[in-house]
Amino acid sequence: MRHQKSAELMEKISILPDTPGVYMYFDKDGKVIYVGKAKNLKRRVSSYFNRTHDVLRTNLLVRNIADMKYIVVPTEQDALNLENSMIKEYKPRYNVLLKDDKSYPWIVVTNELYPRVFLTRQHIRDGSKYYGPYTNVGVARTVIDLICRLYPVRTCRIPITPEYLDKGKGRLCLQYHIKRCRGCCTGAIDSKTYGEYIDRIRQILRGETQELLNFLRTEMERLASELRFEEAQELKEQYRLLENYRSKSVIVSQTMGDIDVFGFDDDGSNDVYVNYMHLRRGAVVRSVTLRYRRSLEESRAQILGYAMEEIRESLGAVYDEVIVAELPEVEIPGVCFTIPQRGDKAKILEVSCRNARQNRIDDLKHMEKHDPEARTERLLERIKKDFRLSELPRHIECFDNSNIQGTNPVASCVVFRDGRPAKRDYRHFNIKTVEGPDDFASMKEVLTRRYTRLMEEGQELPQLIVVDGGKGQLSSAVEALEEIGLRGKIAIVGIAKRLEEIYFPGDSVPLYIDKNSETLRVIQHLRDEAHRFGITHHRNRRSKSALVGELDGIKGIGPKTAEALLQHFKSVKRLREASEADIAAVVGPAKAKIVTTGLLESSSSKP
Asked: Could you tell me which residues come within 8 angstroms of residue 104 by beta carbon, excluding any fewer than 6 positions away?
């Protein structure tokens, strides 16, 4: 039994992304009643609404859901941390976990003359530095253990102050004698030298773990050379944990306090998306995405200024520190704008930009679902703009050569209409006039044959030709169009190996297309199809040549028999492995015996 919900809510669910994130359910009064995390948002959220649940509480939750929102994050670990912080912020009625303060542990570097480093679940505002939280306690303990082995930090709880040292009451303990401590309690090491250790530890806790990895590798090799394999294995496990460890989640960071973030997604089209996030005590508690349509040539800085003003008016935001990708065209007294280059602030800005991008994708899915023709027109307009075309590319053709060591050279032509494959129009070409692996000459031959025939038969010509190759293949293709009188009548481009490099005739400098652009996705699809189609044909030709060549010397086996065996067994290898009965099922018992005997004799005659 499905839970009946509004068409608007079900449509939101149908276009959810297959990415990690956190989702929030709201009741009819707009109150958050549940917060959940998901490795795959679409699959997780859909599971609530496609069946009746065994647990009564879950059914009650679903019955009260009136709306849903979500935030996408880079990893499942980030989703865990964001879920934790949002549950503590909103205290949803149907959440039963993570409501207390005992959640994920932190690593703390204490604010003392000789700081300690240890694991804790309590966050005390005493000037100490907290790193985390760590969703994997095993990883956190591994980091602590390795830090203690790398640097002689003290583990005792003695309140070491200048007054304590002056009294001279400190006593050296076992940690000093096994060289795990430098005698902080007696002043045997000065606070400046000890502080250098702490500075390196802070660097590691910020996520710069390469020093730890190098140390572990060296220790593993040393222990293995001393035949201490069990100890080496323990270090190997620690190395594996640390290598898989990602530095602390950016979603919850006690170091950032209360800040506002504005992320952009601008793909050069008329629509610009701006995501606003508000962090309270370092946790994301609000995320809103605005969509702007350019009327003139408004800059990103102008649009960012509009977004900040709209958020201030509609949500009552009071800005203090604002993280942005570039300075807005607006002056707000007392506001500090930060353009981060690295660290936590840069990562949270990327999360905001990711959510802006996801909203664009959601809108495109919505448009495609309700008005597929509008989506097609928008896509073609985008390709037209990127490739500087004079008309919409409703008909695109892409060519690719395929040969291995010069054998059986072939080419493929794939056709896209309205941005989608038209597989009935795909064509193969066996290279006829070119000897050896000459891609340039092969490309010229194929285009000449293709468009000469289209003109002779009065068929429509494409608006855009895409050649898989760099400047050399493109020049050969242009020569072919020149000779048959089509130069300047059809737009043609070449795509280099790195795909985002697009070459135009007569221009040595390539055009670089945004990796997130739909144009690039269409071009990638074109090239992948041309490559797949050409490789398949090339393999079939090689298999046919090998099989026909193998059977050619067997007396009593003609071309028709060879063709029948080729169609059934596909390759010489499979034919050799087949039993005489299997072959007889295709060509009859008499010829099967001839084929089996002939193949056996040819195998025995080979050196």
From this structure: 80, 81, 84, 121, 132, 133, 134, 135
